[in-house]
Amino acid sequence: xxxxxxxxxxxxxxxxxxxxxxxxxxxxxxxxxxxxxxxxxxxxxxxxxxxxxxxxxxxxxxxxxxxxxxxxxxxxxxxxxxxxxxxxxxxxxxxxxxx
Length: 99
Description:
Elements: H1 3-13, E1 17-19, H2 21-30, E2 35-38, H3 44-57, E3 61-63, H4 67-73, E4 81-84, H5 87-97
Parallel strand pairs: 2-3
Antiparallel strand pairs: 1-4, 2-4
Helix pairs in contact: 1-5, 2-3
Protein name: YlxQ family RNA-binding protein
Domain Ribosomal protein eL8/eL30/eS12/Gadd45: 4-88
Organism: Thermoactinomyces intermedius
């Protein structure tokens, strides 16, 4: 498992991860989401909805991995979209994701 996915598992255990489209949208609207991670194999309508919401609320959006990889990293079956609610974790993900 790579460092990005290991960090995602750590953030999940720390309680700083919200997953699922509706829950992530709610976190974006409330201002709690510091970063949104979207699976590269997300459907176009999900991608547009999440991308537009992130743009509207100035939340960084990072495309990474597949839905299966993201789900496995947080101990779930599959996850298309994940919100990180901690600024420190968000900064670490952006640093890793830009490599």
